[in-house]
Structures
1.
Amino acid sequence: MTSERQTPERANRDRQRAERATEDGTTEARPMGDRPARETARKTVRVLCVDEDGPPSALSDDDDVSVSSVSTATAAREFLATDERVDCVVSEYDLPDDDGLGLLESVRNHYPDLPFVLFTGSGSEAVASEAIGMGATDYLPKGTCGDHLRNRVGRAVATASVETESGISVDRLRELTNAFPDVAFVIDENGQYLEVMTGPDTQDLRTIEQERLVGTHLHDAFPESQADRFLGLVRKTLETGGVETTEYQTETASGERWFEGRIAPLGGTIDGREAVVWVARDVTDRRNNERRLAESRDALTRLNRINGLIHSIVQSLVGSATREEIERTVCEELANSEFYEFAWTGGPWVKDERMHPDVVVGTERSDLERLVAATSARPDEENSFARVVREGESVVVRDAAESEILSEREREIMLDMEIPSAVLVPLTYGNTNHGILGISGACTGAYSDRELTALETLGEIVAFAINAVKNRNLLLSDTTVELEFRVEGSNSGFARLSTELDCKFSLEGVVAVAEDRLLEYVAVEGASASTVLNRLDDIATVEQSRVVSEDDTESLLELHTPESGVNQLVEAGTVVESAVAEDGVARYVVEASSDVNVRNVVDTFRTTYPDAELVSKHEADRPVDTSQGLRQRLGEDLTDKQRTALQAAYFAGYYEYPRESTGEDVAESLDISSPTLHQHLRAAQRKLVGTFLDS
């Protein structure tokens, strides 16, 4: 059922369709291959201007716009009743025989879908509000820019075309758009925007103002290659009837964003051209999450492979006989890997002396020496090397061109050597630094926190291996270096206490309980244990103490002194032969391997006693100790009864776990009492252990 007032509008619409088909040479069923290019497919918009002053200059006739002009509302009604096609009415509010609202009411009664723009110089906000309420497509004051009016007219015509030609309500599309946080477009087969629909939460996702986008083309909004690809997707969708999907990046009000475009046929023709609905969903967060996940996977893969490399290096270190062999193995493995360009090691920093690289693999030694010279020439200044020297911390340069930690001289040389990134790792075991491991990365951005942790662990392992080799060389060497230090009482707590209490302190032995925990056993002569314990609080280096034994002449104390001179000498890789504090002076005698860096030992010792004096240094021959000689000394120390008790207990399984014979069983076999057996065993065991430790 239709009313009489709908008949003229329908007839006018049918006439317009026929005219457009004739003008544009288009039919609703045109094959895709025969579609004209967008330049020839545009239709001329026919505008009826109702204004006593004539049409505005912005609507002058050209290829896109054809203007018919009348001066009264009556003349406008008569024109619309003719066979002339009208795509949009642009009317002044103040007309000689009526006002614009009266004309709008007539147009809406007979032509409800015909766009109507009130373009007036005599309106008001009340008029604008009433006009929009009566169904005006748009309202603009006459002071508006001409291009703005032209765009508004084009948008009004395009929107009406979508609704009237396709049979799909734009308002319905907008309702659907408001139901999800996406932007939707209606685009014809030639790439022209016919409508833009945005939800309430999508303002930041707009690329161009909606008023400016409608009537433009894909090539106006995107670069040519991208627009060509999008137009191809539009036409493919119309050919197949299916849904095409694409992802693209574009600039929006909130910056660069990524969108997933889903393109589906609209299901009708507009001005004889087919169209699609393009829904653009913001997928920036999803892509960022995917990128971060991919980067995390790549970083984890890299870290796992680096950990495998470090494990291989550690395995290769087993059995290394010298420090040079250890360092060369590490540098070769790192430099030959896919992750690093070259590697080098340098000895520990010695005050007032410039460091020189020891082992260099993967680059020219002369180039590296130039860099190290610039880096270590002034360690008191701010540069990458200074932090490793002063603070014992690793230094990471992820981008040599941008890093703020580098001095300008360092940066200049690194860029000249084409070093994109680098790391310096201290070779530290306990409190002793054995030097530096330097590594050049293969690219910028290397050395994540977890990778740095792995390399620092490698540095600790290398330092441990160097320390172990030093100790082994010291044990096996026929020649050692003996050093004697002297510390005055004003600097040594024990030396000062020896004067105040008129006593003597002697180091009996040292036990390494853990990497950072050393127990010292100190004998005291001339003062009671309780008197000494009461005064130990005056010695800052003593953290814990207890009395092991005490008699009328001597007592033995167990002390934990992390910062003591003995601890520093042990950390420096020496063996403390003796340490005695008496008459206000402390003397230390240590033994080191023949290849020891004496300067490093002195500097390490002076971290506790800055004024310590190196009294003497000389080489000493160490007698060769054979197993036969050791057994001979043990045999001379044990009495016959002690040897008999020890042998019987051993062969009877007394030392097995669980015991195969008890003490009572062994005593009964020897026909002695159990207390006598245990007395002989304790004496024999003490002699055995003492001989072993003394050796």
2.
Amino acid sequence: MYILKSALCLAIFFVFYKALLENTSLHSFKRFYLLLSVVISFSIPFITFTTYREIEPTAALQLLEPEASAVALETQFNYLGMALWIIYVAGAMFFLLKFIGNLGNMISKIRRNPKQRSRNIFYVLLNETIVPHTFFSYIFFNRQNFKSGSIPQEVIEHERTHARERHSLDILLIEICLIVFWFNPLFHFVKKAIKLNHEFLADRSVLKTGTDTTVYQKTLLAYSSNACSPQLAHSINYSLFKKRFTVMKTNTSRSAASLRTFLLIPLVLFVLYGFTDRQTIYTQPDELTTEVSVKTQAKKILLMVAGKQVSLNNKQVAPNEFATSLDKITAAWTDREIDSFKWDIFLDKADNGVLNALHLEYLKTRLAKINRNANWIPASRLNSAQTSATREEMKEYNRLAKKYNAMTDDNMNIKQKDLKRMEYIYHKMSPKQKTDAEPFPVNLPPPPPPPPAPENTEIPNPNPAPNAVGAPKPVKVVAGVNDGDLAVPPPPPPPPKPEPVLDHIIKMAKNGATFYYEGEKISSDRAIELIKANDQLNVQSSSSNSGKPVVKISTKPIKLN
């Protein structure tokens, strides 16, 4: 569609040029018009006009899925597309090699032949019989004719104009376009129009020196030739004389020039309207947003993906900023609120590449780590590319793994950001990548499965009662209780008050304990924050093989082995 739109835009601009501009004397304006028409034709299909539309309250909660047949078609290999790409690349390579050959030929002639300098212009003198032609600041003449002075001054001034005004830049630009869009014949007509307009500019420059028009035309006829000239150069060409002679006598009035310029305005508006893209972004009404916020205390997130546009709580975000934006929304949420959170997702012709990018960003968030059961983008919309780490990520993981594997238990000092990064990359690895990668550091819990439960399953009493040693102490006589019978023991002392859970966690942190929450390793500061927020969480303390305490925290009952 892009190729078709850009080609139609260029065709419209070129038809306007041929009909209303080519035969006028507005040569400088025409030069910039032809160049800008090429640039604008490339740019207009990229322009997108966005409109916003409120969705019905019920629509915000539905998840639109493409039909199964459409998904199946997307997965089929496109042989026709592959064949067209092969043909396109072959054609582009052919025209590229041709362009390089022509450019090398011009540079070779400049280097191999003697040159004479006139200010900023160089005359390259060749032994063979040639038509005078120009390439940037170099003008090529026959050596014998130049030395004998038989080349008319009008011809020399004509070629000097091409060199001074850098007409070769325009030719190089259109030649590059011909390489990329070699299949579009319109560019060949545009190139011909650009070179013809360059001749108009050079003719006008010669006539401004006072040369008579009739004399100049006879000089061109006498000196012209039908011989071929280099594609990248400007030369006197007999086949263009009829139109050039007609335009030499044309003098476009100011009113006619203004009228033609004014007609460009509706032309540009028509092209903008007809060949730009339009998209609709669905937004949630303010009334619905207010109602949902009151009922759920702002614990809802509305995700909308329309085409390639992503909206999070009615604010447009870039796919690569999705994780950061999501973490900002959930920053003040407790773990319990995140665990009970449910998505509101609305997909409207969502681009699969955008969905894949969002999924990779989502895996980085706190929400994904805590709420593993949250309704997310269906797996049918995500391709298998997300199940493996990139080459750069594998290099980064191996570098960090080697660094920490080289440390001993005594000097092990792991940065929190490095640990999170390694766990994230490890989650993305395919089974083969995990086999080929450096082993996860021994002293860290290997992701994604949680570490095995320690053998000791009982929570030790932080204040154990001392074991009785030696002979029992004499029984103390208590008035009204055992003063009648010394053999009756006194009542047992009250049991020791259990240590508060928060104090126990703080004490374990000071002893260098390793903490886990729902199977995920966390810091001691994080463990203290969790207990402060909810002292009803289940806690299990035990010792590990290394002798350091291990503390597990969970919202669910902990099974003792």
3.
Amino acid sequence: MERVLCFDGGPATTGLTVRDDCLVESLRLLLSNTAYATGIRLYLPGFSRGMSEREQRAFCRELSSRVGLDLARDDRIEIHPQVSNGLSDILSTLPASVSEVMVVGAGFLVPPGWDTRLRSIAKDDALIGCISPLCMGVPPLDDGAGLSARGSSSTGAVDAAAMTAWLDNDRLVAALGATQHLQLPILFPQCCYLTAQGLSALRAADRDLDPVVCLERAGLVSLVALNLLTAKQRGLGESSALSAYIESASKFSRLLGWLRTRLDEGHAPAIDSAAVRSSQPVQLHIAHSWGGGLGHWVDDFIAGDSSRVNLVLKSIGSWGEFGQRLELYSSYSAMPPLRVWSLTTPITETALANLDYRAVLREILSEYQVQGVIVSSLIGHSLDVFRTGLPTLLVAHDHYPFCIALYSRFNDVCARCDGERLRACMKDNPGHQFFTSRAPEDWEALRAAFVGVLQDNPVTLVTPVRSVLERWRTQMPQLESLPAHVIPHGLGLSPSPSLAGEDTGRLRVVIPGKLSEAKGLRLLEQVLPRLARFADIYLIGCGVSGHVFSGIPGVHLVEHYARGEIQSELSALRPHVGLLCSLVPETFSYTLGELQHYGIPVVATRVGSFVDRIDHGETGFLCDLDAGSVVELMRALDGDREGLSRVRGRLEETPPRTLDGMVADYHRLLPVAPVARGQALFEAGPRQLAKEAIYINPQSTYKMAAYAFFKYSLIKVTSSPRLPSWLRSGLGKTLRLLKRLKGSCER
């Protein structure tokens, strides 16, 4: 079996000779940049048209001399009289012994080692039929107007300056894309790699059928490599096949907006250029990008883990498509990401299986030598996270994916959820607001697949409190035999004396955190007017929802506070008691942990983890889920300041749950092998935690930063499926106008 490199000159090769400088120069560059040129057979369709056998031999000798490679040796060059009119023509003339084909059209330039990059991706999966690279100025990399910086125009007839700019961009693409790829139903006819299975499928198919369709019908996939950037020369390579490809590939240009932005700005990848050798084992966290308690926990875990390297793979998306891309981080809050992958088909909620996702996982596990996986969320992810073969922990931060409303509440706390209740929940539960595009049968299939994959793989369930474990087992009795442990969350808070108020004065009540239906907003609407008659109430971090209480005397609003500032807020307020009115069974509640840490007694509704973590009358107080019970208990505490003082004393005596203790418990469940010093070699990203949502190079001018942000905003809205097409089109035109104006100003 042999590999073939086909240099396709197309119909223009008719009657060409070795004196055609542009064509020969393209071939010379192709061979000099092909890593396996000395072990591959070169195929030149159309070059021998009208030549005698002797003229063909003379042609080969002269061409060998011009390109600097002995092509005539061992018959490693073959010229064929048939003029190529496309991929089908090329394949029809190849001998049966050929097992792999790399096609490059005249007028298209490839960077050094291009073949190695494509072939490395082909090894990932037996279902890969063909791989196409990106091309400068051609979709899907180009958005219709061309890249705006660093040699983004067509490279011309091998112009030296343009060549340098193109190769600079290729190096950026190679670093940003690494071995990433997209599964797209397109095949770049001017440069592609056909695997053995792809070649076999195309040979057996109808020649008049679209090659991509042939591959799909054979069960194979077409990929676009994001680690390779080719370029087109002016005046060469024009063909009907290229025009058809551009029309097809343009549909997917929005998927690469992030890469266009990075190339436009000319920034190197946001990773440390120095490779770091680590003697610590690596474990991977799987998370969504919603923030909240889950993000808090992941950051705390990493902060408390000094003996392992922790990486975080987050799903990034928008409403209805929660897994549009995957981003790898050095911690949950760290910016910018280490790596980014776009998924060809966005994951709406959770995929039962996904080829792109599986490839990303394989890449991360291999490159970073991951030894264990900690799954904190499946939102925007695939069940493939459990199929890695590595020891895996599933941390129950909510009740998804069994519960489509996350919080396991429909009219009341859910004790079961069979098919009938599931359908009623999807129809009538106001809490079912996140995942609304699927039918009940889809959720039943996901539930069954979820249970099955947990049973068939090395997975251990971890919950922060006992009630969560019991609820999971009640709703999914098939998991009764699944290994499971309760590990309370730790808190990364510094030691502090009690911040609770003294026993005298008007009762001061603090309600921390954003208000929502799940957090008891409607219950508070009934409670606060009555409570304000004998207490001062402070809503801190309530968000805009707190405005409904702004007209009540005695109610004070602090709309926002940053994470880490709660200590200063509580120190200023000195509240006597905290109030938490969640209606849903929370799996932990960081606000409860923070209030207890600072010695503030808490009144909480009798639901979820509150029941696990509060010993009524000793470490806090529990009340029923109705306004009368809440007000009655608060009035009783107002008259029993000694009771509040007793609870405050118990909280001060209770040793806090530390991050070190929590991490140690997790390490016992997820043992890893020691790593020899220098064994784990990878590019490490910045370890700082950033409050900013967008990373800005500190060396950038204000004007550059403002332009980048405005451009990002436009790209964001033009790629949003939730906006009307006419609005996306208008904003896209605005973006292109800004690019042209920026270019004119720079010139």
